[in-house]
Amino acid sequence: MEIFERLKAAVPDDWNAYVGHPFVRGMGDGTLPEPAFRHYLVQDYLFLIQFARAYALAGYKARSLADLKAASAGVSAIVDTEMDLHVRLSERWGLSAADLESAVEARATVAYTRLVLEAGMSGDLLDLYTALAPCMIGYAEIGTALAALPGGLSPDNPYREWIAEYSGEGFQEAAQAARDQLDRLAADRLTEARWPALVDLFRQATRLEADFWEMGLTLAE
Question: Which Pfam families has this protein been placed in (predicted)?
Fold first, then answer.
C-alpha cells in the first residue's frame, strides 16, 4: 500500500469529515450558498500563496535533483494553474485580482498554511510532503468524486468549473506526482518509530483542511 493510502487508513474519520464536508457536498449538487464560495475563493487564493512558499521551501531542502524537480513542479502547479483558475473564477463571481491580493487571511487560512511551513522548517521533506498531502492529493480525490456525481459537471451547476479543474488531467497528474514523491521519500526516510508522529501530522493537516471548508461555509473571519 502506498504511503498516502496508509495515512488515510490511519485516520478514516478525519479524512471522511474532510472530503465529505457539507461545503464539498454543496459544490457537488450546486446548493452551496454563493457568498460562501466567494469567501472561499478569496481565502484559497491567499492559501495558495503560502503553499507555493512551502514548495519553494521543499526546493531549498532538496538533497537530489529528483527532489528539486518535484518541488519545482509543485510551485508550477500552484502558480501557473491553480492561482490562474482562482483569478478566472473570481472575476466571474465579481471579485477582481486586486480584491484577492488585498484580502486579509482568515484564522483557518493561517492555521493550516503555517502548520505546513512549520513542518517543513523544523522537519525534513517527508514531514513537509505529508503536511501538504491532504490539500494536493485530497483536492484531486474530491474533484474526481464530484465529477462522477450526476449533476457535478452539469451546465446548471455554478461550481462545475472548479470541479472540472480539480478532476481534470492536469491536476490529476500533479496529484499523482505528489503521491509518487511521498512514496520515494517514505522509502528513504520512514521508520516504524517515526510512523506515529507522521500520522499525527497528517491528522492535524486533514482536520485543518476540514476547518478551511467550515470557514468558507460559515463565512468566519
Answer: TENA_THI-4
Catalytic annotation present for 192 = no
**What does the block give as the cell for 98?**
486586486
Q: Crossing angle, helix 169-189 and helix 125-147, to 10 degrees?
A: 150
Q: Which helix (H) or strand (E) holds 2?
A: none
pLDDT band, residue 73 (cuts 50/70/90): confident
Is 135 marked active-site? Answer: yes
Q: Which of 91, 118, 209, 221 is catalytic?
A: 209
* Per-residue pLDDT tens over the stretch 31-44: 999 999 999 989 99
Marked catalytic residue, from 135, 165, 169, 173: 135
Domains of the chain in sequence order: 3-218 (1.20.910.10)
Q: What is the DSSP letter of 149?
A: S
CB atoms within 10 A of CB 179: 18
Which residue stretches of 61-82 are H helix?
65-76
The three grid cell numbers given for residue 165, joined into one nine-digit string: 479543474
Global pTM reads: 0.92
